[in-house]
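HOLO CASE FILE
Compound: 3-isopropylmalic acid
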Amino acid sequence: MKKIIVIPGDGIGQEITASAVKVLKQVDAKFNIGLEYDYRDAGGTSYEKFGTPLTDEALDACKKADGVLFGAVGGKKWDSLPVNLRPERAIFGLRKGLGLFANLRPTKVYPELVNSSPLKPELVAGSDLLIVRELVGGIYFGKRCESEFVDGVEQAWDTEIYSVPEIERITKLAFETAKVRRGKVTSVDKANVLAASRLWRKVVVDVAKDFSDVELNHLYVDNAAMQLVLNPKQFDVIVTNNIFGDILSDEAAVIGGSIGLMPSASIGELTSLYEPIHGSAPDIAGKGIANPMGTILSAAMLLRYSLKLEDAARAIESAVEKTLADGWRTADIFTDGFKRVGTDEVTEIIYKNL
Ligand code: IPM
Ligand code: MG
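Model generated. Tokens follow.
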């Protein structure tokens, strides 16, 4: 048996993870995988029950599992809580606790949705890129000071810090991933200004020596942001630090037309975690209109990366692609001339397409 911890979280997290589990069960029956599910809370839902956004028990359960399927956390209701009790804390607790050092965010432009992209169709058609973001280091976890006074003037600071092993680990993963894609890595940094970026670039160049079959280039982050909208097709794998990856992955996500479609994998030392990249969307929670595709495609990534079941992963991806090709659209990607469906209906259609 393979144990999956499902963490629905808050808002639409509940509905979209239910859809993904339904699809996983069907794939399981078809490929004889033997999946077992166990549920845990996180975010506001966990705070309401246990007074904390992530319990040690939930984290321990994840550590022992074969994979974690995560919905989303957050909501207005909990916005005024102290920082260490806010739902987003659950995300950092899982990232650090599971050592989720690499965040993989693919952006694929489906031919059927090329007109939903904010960019010109001819520019984005055929784009297929993967951002590999370092997730447990850099300025997110460096020393910081919320407030101090120097000569009577208040200031605050954060630190961007990377060690050689941290950079090596994420770079190797990026190169290995590029090898089974189109063999190109773009490393994004700000080496013209930042010391941590200069070390980043030096280590990337060193690691690249072991991957002679992969092409490497470097871009400064400002230029990379521009190139993403000028010519997204030039990219295969982008590897970058925590904060640049955060920013560029939101930019890349919309190129495909809808953030509701975008899955992600966070690769860990022990267990890896899979989640859609959109949030908990409290405004539409419980209305049955959320797009479950990002979560369903995240479940496909779980099969691919944690269970090494490429065929089963492809089966889910093909079922989603067929659903789009047949004209079925949830509200977020609906345009005139297509067939509008809700969360349950679209799940049912994907399920039948398997
Ligand atoms: C993401 C999110 C998080 C991040 C937030 C919610 C803390 O934006 O996963 O990209 O900045 O990492
Ligand atoms: Mg982000």
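CASE NOTES: The longest strand covers residues 100-108. The mean pLDDT is 96.
CLOSED: yes
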